[in-house]
Structures are given as C-alpha cells and as structure tokens.
C-alpha cells in the first residue's frame, strides 16, 4: 500500500519524525478506533461531534438519523470537515517532568461529505458498522426493515488527504538525567472488553453467543 | 454544583434526554478523559488536534511547545475553539441491527484561548498535568529548569459554555423484538492500565515506585 501525498494541511511540522503518511498505518488505526470526531464550521464557529464510523476501502462512513441536524447541515452545505481518530497506547514516564509524554496513534483526515444513496453501498456500510463493533453480530440480529433503512442517513468521506502522528517507545530524557534515581518507563494502556452483561429483559433461555465469548 | 446555561451552541437537540448540563457530570468526565480534541478554524477550514489537558476549577489547560504552530495560531488570533472529550463505556447490542448503540459520555465546550503568563498558574497547571496521568509522580521527578518552563506554552479555556451527552443502560428494542431468540445486552469497555515496563536504559537498582503498583 502506498503513501498519501503530503499537503499544506496534512504535513506534520511539529515533531516531524512522528508523522506517518502510509495507508497501512492510517487504515489500521481507523479500523481499531471505535469513534472519530467530525469537526465542521458554521458561520465561522468550529463544532465537533464524536461519532461511530467504519472504513471500507478508501472511504470513511458515518451514519445517523435522517433527522440529525449536524448531518443534514454538513450534507446540504457540502462543508469541508476535519475527521480525527486517536488511540492512547501508553503513559510515558520520564525522569524529568518536562519529558513526560504519551504513546499514541492519531489520524487526521480532511474531506467533504457525500450522501450515500446507492442502496448496495448503504447496506454494506451499515453491515460493516455492526460487524466493526462486534464481529459475528450481523448474521445474528434482526435486519433493518425498509422503514429503518429510510430513517438512516449515511455519509461517506474519501480518504485522500490524511496523515497520522505516532509516538512509540520509552521516554527520551536529557543525557545527564539518566543517572538519576528516578524510575522511568511506560505504562501501557488498552481498551478492555469486559464480560457481556445480559439485558434484564432478555428472553429466558437465550444464551451468550459464541462470538462474544 | 450547578448547571451550565444552555445556549444555541450547547443545547442537545438530537435525543435531548441524553443531554446533561451539570458541573458534576461535565467535570468528572473531563477529569477521567486522557485527552481532548481542540477544533479551530483557519480560513474557513476546520482543523482539530488531539492533546492532553487538565481541568482545574472552572478552566481547562492545554500545553505545548512555544514553537507549536497551532498553539501560537489560536493564541494570537484568539480563535474561538470547540473542545471535546469522549469516553466509551460499552457496546450496546440490541436484538435489531437498527438499535445497536454505544454507551458513552462526551463533553463539548466552546471557549476562547487565554495565554497563561502568571507563573503560579503556569506551575500549578504543569504539576496538575503530570499528576493527572500519574498521581504521585510530580514529587518523584526532576522539576523543570527555568529554560524548560520558558519552552512551554500553556493556554487556558474558561468552562462556561459546555454540555454533555450521556448514554447508559441496556439496549432499547422495539416492543415485538423482545420475543426474538437473539441475545441482547452490553459489553462494558474500560481503558486498562497494564503493568509498567521499565525503560531499557533504566539505572540499575531503581525499583518501580509504590504509586505505580
């Protein structure tokens, strides 16, 4: 997989060595992140909305109700948006307060919304949403009715102008500080899935599906 | 603690019952979230930056290098910004694809940056940053030198115009779907801290401090 071109908007200027422009880094982060933030502008004022999303090939999809104010707004005005997703991988504890940091991966994408009105693409996106949060789930659940499809708006964004910023590894201290009697290292962070909690109104006798174990 | 006033920008219109405007909900989420997203506008184009932050009283603080392009930009132009922080608490698995959701808490704040040039406030903010990611750490590490303080820019934002959106609890399905033989419930999510990994260059004999165990 290739690199995305660096543009004035996506080029990482601060700590440039943390910049990444390759599809593999960017796509794998998008596939792992549970939500993104969509930033847009209304009358000079920035707004942002955290929302679930899914990547298929070279597109990001978000969905919402056809009544969603912000989705209608960015759809109608074809607002340029900035989408970001971030994963926190660890706390970086240096010997000096100044060099404390975090290990993270973040992606920023600049794009314009496209309304998805092709039924095949719409269905594929909504199936992918469900499968992203819970692989194996789609085959198990009641599928959308024609009315439910109609109540759902899906917008797509081409991933063309995108960059990632990544920090990994141990702390970087000043040369003379490595002699200090201060512990230094990384506390890894990860989002944990806990055992499923059944709905109190679950029909008696329905057991936890294998894909959740 | 009281409520923040609802404004045209902060009033939750979509799924209004998920809206929260009280300080306790908003502050506790800000204190738990490891990073926020700062959205701002440059020449009509939205940008956003994920960054660490800390809340003290009624203010949010972010910090960066005095060479940071975006921090200088929002400082100099006093850009209005939109700050958000989000926590994902669970995957909500309904009987129908349509009613799948997530449990989450998110806060959105609208504010303008203030440069923190008061030394006491600056020091307090930077100590709070370190203590937020690792309570007990500040007392243990080498404190900033005069030059390091000078290299650090801190911006504050008054928390005045803010709202939260919160979903909790089991899935909500359509009446007739409760009879289906489909498992439904919640998969709780939580960010886990794993055992600390020592820096390969750690001075021999320095042990893991008590506050990390």
Can you characterise this structure?
The structure is a homodimer of 213-residue chains. With 213 residues, chain A is α+β, with helices and mostly antiparallel strands. The first copy, chain A, has 4 helices and 12 strands. The two termini of chain A are 34 Å apart. Chains A and B meet through strand 2, strand 3, strand 6, strand 7 and helix 3 of A and strand 2, strand 3, strand 6, strand 7 and helix 3 of B. Strand 11 (185-193) of chain A pairs antiparallel with strand 12 of chain B, so a sheet runs across the interface.
Provide the descriptors you would attach to this structure in a database record.
homodimer; four-stranded antiparallel sheet; seven-stranded antiparallel sheet; alpha+beta; 213 residues; Pnp Oxidase, Chain A
Layout of helices and strands:
2 copies of one chain form a homodimer.
Chain A: E1 19-20, H1 23-32, E2 36-42, E3 45-51, E4 54-56, E5 59-65, H2 69-77, E6 81-93, E7 101-111, E8 114-115, H3 119-133, H4 146-151, E9 152-158, E10 161-167, E11 185-193, E12 197-198
Antiparallel strand pairs in A: 1-10, 2-3, 2-6, 4-5, 5-9, 6-7, 6-11, 7-10, 8-9
């Amino acid at each position: 997989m290739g690199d995305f071109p660096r543009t004035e908007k996506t080029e990482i200027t601060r700590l440039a060595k943390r910049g990444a422009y390759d599809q593999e880094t960017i796509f794998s982060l998008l596939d792992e992140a549970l939500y993104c933030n969509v930033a847009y502008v209304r009358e000079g004022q920035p707004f942002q909305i955290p929302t679930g999303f899914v990547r298929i090939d070279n597109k990001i999809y978000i969905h919402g109700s056809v009544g969603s104010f912000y989705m209608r707004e960015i759809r109608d005005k074809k607002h340029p948006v900035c989408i970001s997703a971030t994963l926190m991988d660890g706390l970086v504890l240096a010997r000096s307060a100044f060099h404390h940091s975090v290990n993270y991966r973040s992606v920023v994408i600049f794009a314009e919304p496209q309304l998805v009105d092709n039924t095949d693409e719409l269905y594929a996106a909504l199936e992918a949403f469900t499968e992203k949060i819970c692989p194996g789930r789609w085959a198990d659940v009641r599928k959308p009715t024609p009315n439910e499809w109609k109540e759902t708006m899906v917008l797509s964004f081409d991933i063309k102008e995108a960059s990632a910023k990544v920090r990994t590894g141990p702390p970087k201290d000043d040369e003379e500080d490595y002699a200090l009697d201060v512990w230094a290292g990384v506390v890894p962070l990860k989002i944990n899935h806990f055992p499923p909690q059944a709905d109190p109104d679950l029909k008696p006798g329905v057991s936890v599906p294998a894909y959740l174990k």
